[in-house]
Amino acid sequence: MPQDNPTAPMDDREPVFQARIDRDEKIEPKDWMPEKYRRTMIRQISQHAHSEVIGMQPEGNWITRAPSLRRKAVLLAKVQDEAGHGLYLYSAAETLGATREDMIADLQSGKAKYSSIFNYPTLTWADIGAIGWLVDGAAIMNQVMLCRTSYGPYARGMVRICKEESFHQRQGYEIMLTLSRGSDQQKAMAQDALNRYWWPSLMMFGPRDDDSPNTQQSMKWRIKRQTNDELRQRFVDQTVPQAEYLGLTVPDPDLHWNKEREHYDFGEIDWDEFWQVVKGNGPCNRQRIAHHVAAHEEGEWVREAALAYQARKASAEEAA
Ligand code: 3HC
User: Fold this and answer.
1) 6-31 pLDDT, tens per residue?
2) Burial degree of 145 (CB within 10 A; 0-12, 13-18, 19+)
3) Angle between helices 100-109 and 285-298 (to 10 degrees)
4) Who lines ligand 1 at CB under 6 A?
5) Which residue of 92, 102, 190, 279 shows the fewest CB atoms closer than 10 Å?
6) What is the pLDDT of residues 116-126, one digit of tens each?
């Protein structure tokens, strides 16, 4: 097998690359990689970053309306964490040659995607609990797997992000526990949030494996270590008992424990809704992008000032 010889014909290098993947070696920025692998990694990492940043909007909506100073402080910390996750992930994508400007332009033009879940509104305080419990819970399911993804910078970024996500999930579940143990109105608010966020949370794992154009190749390149359906099933199995502990009802009449499979069987996801939201026709898609564009434009002066400072510092160092 030809070694990783940069002058070898392209088709000789792919088997060497695949053999590295099969040996569970981490692919690093300066390593040779198939152009399709590089593009797939930029696609997935940048869209992951977009999801973190856009995800700040629905939760940020409730910072000024949190029911106590403690809840406000916790929510502020969580939203700030999400911003950091986004910056971390944009930096990981930049190690593959993507530029921040291009990634932001692709998000704002609608060319790039971000997680469908963030196109749903946060109507009550209980939604903040449901997002922490279900959305961060689903994200952790996916991101723990990504700690073993084949691209080094992405895997290492996930280790740090997962540590913070577990705090996010716990604070959300604590909100739901407080509400479900509260007044009838509070319990009804928690049930309403579960009703509205259950199915969109299952959609976070992506289309069924049979309808996923990327999963097969992503599994071969060990970008994914488990498929969309496998992770979704694990999420359902883990989350249903948590809902039962809260005394809440999962809004799925077909949900039941299957003794033979030793998993929960659950109902069919509304894939029309999923693809409508992914295509930009969800409840809040336009609002989310408009808000991002406005914030980006408002922040232009900060970027200009930072670049001017950097240029002046560089020329001063040169002159010294
Ligand atoms: N929302 C929007 N688009 C979605 C989607 C979703 N829930 N699920 C899938 N898609 C898109 C894919 O991006 C792909 O489109 P593209 O080829 O144009 O990018 C298409 O639908 C087909 O889906 P595939 O399953 O074939 O695509 P992938 O192999 O990329 O799998 C994924 C989709 C599982 C989301 C994968 O990209 C992934 O694991 N991404 C990293 C994790 C991530 O982005 N999570 C989003 C949530 S982050 C978050 O919640 C932050 C937390 O702090 C709250």
Assistant:
1) 565 666 899 999 999 999 999 999 99
2) middle
3) 140
4) 43-44, 47-48, 51-52, 55, 82, 85, 113, 115-116, 135-136, 139, 142, 165, 203-207, 212-215, 218, 228, 278
5) 279
6) 999 999 999 99
| Residues pairing with 249 in the sheet | none
How far does the chain reach from its first CA to its final CA, in angstroms?
A: 52
Atom of ligand 1 nearest to the CA of 47: 44
CA atoms 39, 47, 242, 277: torsion sign: negative
**pTM (2 decimals)?**
0.95
Q: Quick check: 58 pLDDT over 90?
A: yes
- Which of 50, 163, 39 is CA-nearest to residue 98? 39
DSSP output for 112-145? S---GGGGS---SHHHHHHIIIIIHHHHHHHHHH
